[in-house]
Each structure stands twice: as C-alpha cells, then as structure tokens.
Design a protein that fits this description.
Elements (H helix, E strand, L loop, with lengths): L8 E5 L4 H12 L4 E6 L2 H15 L4 E5 L6 H11 L4 E4 L9 H23 L8 E6 L12 H17 L2 H7 L1 E8 L16 H9 L6 H14 L5 E4 L8 E3 L3
Helix pairs in contact: 1-8, 4-5
C-alpha cells in the first residue's frame, strides 16, 4: 500500500517552485490527500498553494515557511502535531560554488537531518506506521565532469545517505522505504546559481549545450518512481524524453 499515493499526506521541502512544486502537483493529481509545502520563499509559497488548491480542492495543499537549515524542530513539531505524515520529499537544494558550507548545509546536512527526523517518526519499530522518504539528488550524485565541485560532493553524499538508510535490512526492521530521484539537466532557477571562477566560462558553455527537461517531466517521473522503486535505490530521469527510468546500482 505504501506505493500508492492515494490518501497519502506528503511533506515537500523546497516545494514552492521548480521540481518541488511539480512533485507536489503530480502527487496531488495522483491521489495524495494533502501536500505540505515547505519553502523559505513565503510569498511564492503562498501563491503556489493557492494555485494547487484552486486546481485540486481547498485544503489539499498547505504552506509553511521554512528554512530547512534552521527550522527542523519547530516546523516538524507543528506538522507532526497536526498530520499523520506518510511521505517526506527532501527536495530543497542550491547551486552555490562560492560557499562550501552553505551548499553542504542545504543540499546534504538538511537532507540527512530531515530524513532522520521523519524516519524515526515513521519507523514501525518505534511506534510508527511505516512510510517513504524520497531524496531528490541529481545525475551529479554519480556522474562526473570538471565543474561544480561543491554541488557534486553534496549530491554524492545524498546518494550515500539514501542507499545506506534505505538498505533492505533497515527497511525490514523499520518499514520505512528510502529512495532517490536523480534528475538530469532541468529548466529550473538552480541553473542560475553561483559558479566559482575556476573554468567558469567553460562551465557556462557546457550548461548552455545541454538539453533541458521540464520540471513537469520530473514531477511525472516522481510518481512512477514512487510506485516502482525498491528501498535503497536511486532513479535517473533525464533528456526530456518520455519517461524512461533506470535505477542506479552502486552496491
């Protein structure tokens, strides 16, 4: 039953725009009961939820302002006092090659902290009902080129976290499935992020040469991945083609 989105209550970090918004959109489209959109962008988040509620029904989406690096305890406490959460989507992320600490705090540390908080809440061996944690990584969680050093480091760590926490032996004990989504180059504001001066112009030209898929493509793929993914696996979606999913197996 965990692979059916019907009537699921879902928390999405970074859910106001881009991939996070489209995951919220397509999860609601496929039967989710409530989407709790977390984002640091207050005005944008309120507008996103207004749009979702107009499309799917009043109360289907709820917005809470949240800085994932600072607000874990107060925001998660408020959520869990009101909702029985079935799914966490760890989506918030940045591209900032001028700040290693900021990159790791948002892309890695927050993913681990939010993941562990909801993992403990969902664990059947801890009084929970089981559930699913979806970590949005990147093709740069396993692919390499000469640029975006901090970003790749942060996303490789997300894959390691996903495959370790989601290991089948952990799932057998806890009933919590942990899976990863690895989008290829996607048309989001993250591509407007800060680059380092190292080979900057080459990196810009490389990005310009890539085929950018739409955020809707990732939202749709996220639904399919949710349905079929085994715990501890990470799935690639790239090139703006019809959904063709492939699991990453690095074990």
């Amino acid at each position: 039953m965990e692979r059916n989105l019907k009537d699921k209550i879902v928390v999405v970090t970074g859910g106001a725009v881009g991939i996070g918004y489209q995951i919220s959109n397509f999860f609601l489209k496929n039967g989710a009961k409530t989407i709790i959109v977390l984002d640091i962008l207050e005005t944008t988040g309120a507008e996103a939820v207004k749009t979702l509620n107009e499309q799917y029904g009043e109360g289907k989406a709820v917005f809470m302002k949240c800085d994932v690096t600072k607000d874990l305890e107060p925001v998660s406490s408020e959520i869990l006092s009101k909702y029985k959460v079935d799914v966490l989507v760890n989506n918030a992320g940045i591209l900032d090659e001028t700040s290693l600490r900021k990159t790791l705090e948002i892309n890695t540390i927050a993913v681990v902290e939010w993941g562990m908080k909801f993992w403990d809440y969902m664990r059947k061996d801890n009084g929970g009902s089981g559930g699913t944690i979806v970590n949005v990584a990147s093709i740069y969680g396993f692919e390499f080129d000469p640029w975006s050093i901090y970003y790749k480091t942060s996303k490789h760590a997300v894959i390691g976290f996903t495959k370790t926490l989601g290991h089948p032996q952990n799932y057998e004990k806890t009933g919590v499935r942990v899976i990863g989504i690895c989008p290829g180059f996607t048309d989001t504001k993250i591509l407007e992020g800060k680059l380092s001066d190292f080979r900057k112009e080459e990196c810009i030209e490389f990005i310009k040469s890539q085929i950018l898929q739409k955020t809707e493509t990732i939202g749709e793929a996220a639904v399919e991945i949710f349905k079929i993914a085994e715990t501890g696996t990470a799935w690639v979606k790239k090139d703006n083609l019809p959904i063709e999913l492939a699991p990453i197996n690095t074990q």
